[in-house]
Amino acid sequence: MTEVTEVAARLDALEKRLGIAEDELAIIRLVASYGPLVDSGSPDLAPDLLAEDGVYDVSYGRMTGPAAFSALLKDPEHLNAVKSGIAHVMGLPWVRVDGDRAVAINCTQIYLRKDGEYAIFRIAQNVWKLERRPQGWKIIERTNRLIGEGDDARALLEAAI
Amino acid sequence: MTEVTEVAARLDALEKRLGIAEDELAIIRLVASYGPLVDSGSPDLAPDLLAEDGVYDVSYGRMTGPAAFSALLKDPEHLNAVKSGIAHVMGLPWVRVDGDRAVAINCTQIYLRKDGEYAIFRIAQNVWKLERRPQGWKIIERTNRLIGEGDDARALLEAAI
Amino acid sequence: MTEVTEVAARLDALEKRLGIAEDELAIIRLVASYGPLVDSGSPDLAPDLLAEDGVYDVSYGRMTGPAAFSALLKDPEHLNAVKSGIAHVMGLPWVRVDGDRAVAINCTQIYLRKDGEYAIFRIAQNVWKLERRPQGWKIIERTNRLIGEGDDARALLEAAI
């Protein structure tokens, strides 16, 4: 029956397209959640965005898995920054979804409050590689490079584009 | 008829899922509109985002309803800032929709231009509680806390997560 | 047959609504891509977001078409900024889609790294007029005005709201 086939095809197409839009929104949400989760001071919430085998590669080191990332958030220097006032601001992510994988590129800005004044602490380019896992989208690899440290940040963007 | 039932179920599911995605986009749009509406200098546009019974709770006071918020935007200090150059930049909101209610968390950055130089005026964490009203999504309560003023901003995030 | 007509009407409505949500996401993606495309140092990628007849109107000039914009990105001053460290951060865009046209309003922040310190280089209000073209959404006109240069930035916002 032609009508039934046509209806099924339109439903299939809609479900597929909507799934992609939902994935894009889920990844925007994941990136957006990172800032508040870290700034809340909890050492466990932001690491949970990382897959068990996920890597967080920052200029000062490379960590694998949520536990290693949690340890970083328990560092006295980070805890002091949370206490005196810090904001991890997530720049608008450029999200590209491809099936069960996705890449998001954004620029993160970290601000501190010091002696009543606001200061820029770090400006970094970020490439987030994500994968759909049973619990939802997870970070497989996040690479973060400060601007103005040689060619690192620019090269990171170029490789990801 | 099985086919008809199946088609109806798929349509129902699609309409529900799409509605949630549309709500999420509507709330991103609402938060995004706040900056330009305030920076345009109009004292009435941004307050219209607030429900009649909506509360705007800032570190220096707590206002209820659009009229009270409009009064703030007519304050000479605010008008001078608009004149000399101000930008209310809305950080990426982390939006969670739950039926006719939603919560968005973001960090707002306010910049000023002073003697040709740019300065950071305020960095604040924000929790926006929203509700679907006959005219669309409206702010029921927005709480804004500067970073580095005791534990206020961090505690606000923790309570909302 | 009533059922068939009803199913077709629901499918039509879903396809239309989903198309609008997809357009909004596509425009968020386009704006988000601008920062990394410029910061990668490539003089051709960001200009490709502009329509052939598209205009980029900045405080220091008005360019028409991708080639004129590419020339700007090959300017030694810009290349030096890319080399020493620059980040074009796209503020959250307020997107309004109307059929094959759309308007996005956002605030852009440009940061530099200078002698190890971060500095704010430019804070500007932006109005992006977009159109659906055969290759997808393209910028027809982007106007960018620095805050605190007379009334330009505020007036730009007011006209676009």
Could you walk me through the main structural features you see in this protein, from its secondary elements to its overall organization?
With 161 residues, chain A is α+β, with helices and mostly antiparallel strands. The first copy, chain A, contains four helices and seven strands; from the N terminus they run αββααβββββα. In chain A, strand 1 and strand 2 (61-64) form a beta hairpin. The first copy, chain A, is elongated and about 70 Å long. The interface between A and C is large, with 36 and 43 residues.
Distance between the termini of chain A: 46 Å
Continuous helix count of chain A: 4
Major β-sheet profile of chain A: 7 strands, mixed
Largest interface, Cβ cutoff 8 Å:
A-C, 36 and 43 residues
The parts of chain A where pLDDT drops under 50 for at least 5 residues are none
Silhouette of chain A: elongated
- Gyration radius over CA of chain A: 19 Å
Name the beta content range of chain A: 35-45%
Oligomer: homotrimer
Mean pLDDT value of chain A: 96
